[in-house]
Design goal:
The protein folds into 2 domains: 5-129, Rossmann fold (3-Layer(aba) Sandwich), CATH 3.40.50; 132-268, Probable inorganic polyphosphate/atp-NAD kinase, domain 2 (Tumour Suppressor Smad4, Sandwich). Helix content is 18%, strand content 35%. It is built from 6 helices and 22 strands. The protein has helices spanning 15-30, 39-46, 76-86, 112-120, 194-197, 283-291; strands at residues 5-9, 34-37, 56-57, 67-74, 93-97, 107-108, 125-129, 132-137, 143-149, 152-157, 164-170, 173-180, 182-186, 210-215, 225-227, 233-240, 246-250, 254-258, 263-268, 273-277, 280-281, 316-317. Strands 3-2-1-4-5-6 form a 6-stranded parallel sheet, with helices on both faces. Helix 1 links the parallel strand 1 and strand 2. Helix 1 (15-30) runs parallel beside helix 4 (112-120).
Length: 323
């Protein structure tokens, strides 16, 4: 039987991340499994820890289909990069927070050893997160770009000085047109990211929905919208006042210039992103911890007065997903 293959996603720019990666490699090897890095990660880490030069490389030594799970060391940005690496495979992702907010992470660095041991023992469940499929057509109708997103698809003005003119469409019917700095189409996972910063709602991860959030729109009817996952959202780009183009971003990582007259179609992807979970918990508690929301004085159904904030401990919400 071939050894189990565990992907580790990290980078060599932080000392704590480098040390954590070396520790996880040792634990995985002790359990008879094979640690795997993306080629770029392996090269960067091997420059700091020479022993990692011999670790297997994704695709070069181990195919994606053989990866059992991806363990991610970092914040939400690193988890989004891991989602790119495993896209097209079936491996779930487990995040160990080495950053600050870490909405997507399942564990904190202090619980890293226990988390890895539980992963290797198979003591985790898998949640599927709604992802978006995006397709861009030019004015002649030709497809010029296709991609996907876990958090959001954003269309933004290319020129700082000018607004971009947009027409919003739902299910092939026009809804509204306005000038704006841009627009965000977000998943429940991304509702606490860019969409939240733009004034959109927080969507509980158990809700299957897509949020449409204008960015600084100049219009009376330009409020955030929430539609079901079966609905298709499209944005037609009329260009800026001076004829300038726009830029589309997927998760803030993959971008493409949007020419005047282009049409951006966004719908639910057939391939969700899979996250590994170790702990049951309420999403409400995660929001309070991550955003440090004030809950002093809450009595609750038991009548017990809450006088302290919830502790920052690793949790994932029950039956859903932690953003």
């Amino acid at each position: 039987m071939n050894a189990r293959s565990i992907l580790i996603v990290a980078h060599a720019y932080r000392d704590d991340t480098v040390e954590a990666a070396a520790r996880i490699v040792a634990i995985i090897r002790e359990q008879g499994a094979t640690p795997v890095f993306a080629p770029d990660d392996r090269a960067g880490l091997a420059a700091v820890i020479p022993d990692l030069a011999g670790v297997a490389a994704l695709d070069e030594d181990i195919p994606l289909d053989d990866i059992e799970i991806a363990i991610v060391l970092g914040g939400d940005g690193t988890i989004l990069r891991a989602a790119e690496l495993v896209r097209g495979g079936s491996a779930p992702i487990l995040g160990i927070n080495m950053g600050h907010v870490g909405f997507l992470a399942e564990s904190e660095r202090d619980d890293m050893d226990d988390a890895v041991q539980r992963i290797l023992a198979g003591e985790y469940r898998v949640e599927e997160r709604l992802a978006l499929a995006v397709k861009v057509r030019d004015a002649s109708g030709d497809v010029i770009f296709e991609s996907w997103a876990l958090n959001e698809v954003s269309i933004e003005k290319a020129s700082r000085q000018r607004m971009i003119e947009l027409i919003v469409e739902i299910d092939r019917r026009p809804l509204s047109a306005y000038g704006a700095d841009g627009i965000v189409i977000a998943t429940p996972t991304g509702s606490t990211a860019y969409g939240f910063s733009a004034g959109g709602p927080v969507i509980w991860p158990t809700v299957q929905a897509i949020a449409v959030v204008p960015i600084s729109a100049h219009a009376l009817f330009a409020r955030p919208l929430v539609v079901g996952p079966e609905h298709a959202v499209a944005i037609e780009v009329q260009g800026g006042i001076d004829g300038s183009t726009g830029v589309m971003w997927c998760d803030g990582r993959r971008s493409h210039e949007i020419p005047v007259g282009a049409r951006v179609s966004v719908r639910r992807s057939d391939a969700p992103v899979r996250l590994a979970r170790l702990h049951p918990a309420q999403f409400t508690d995660r929001l309070v911890r991550k955003f440090q929301l004030p809950v002093h004085g809450w009595r609750g159904p038991t009548g017990t007065l809450m006088t302290e904030t919830l502790p920052v401990v690793p949790h994932a919400e029950k039956g859903g997903s932690a953003q």
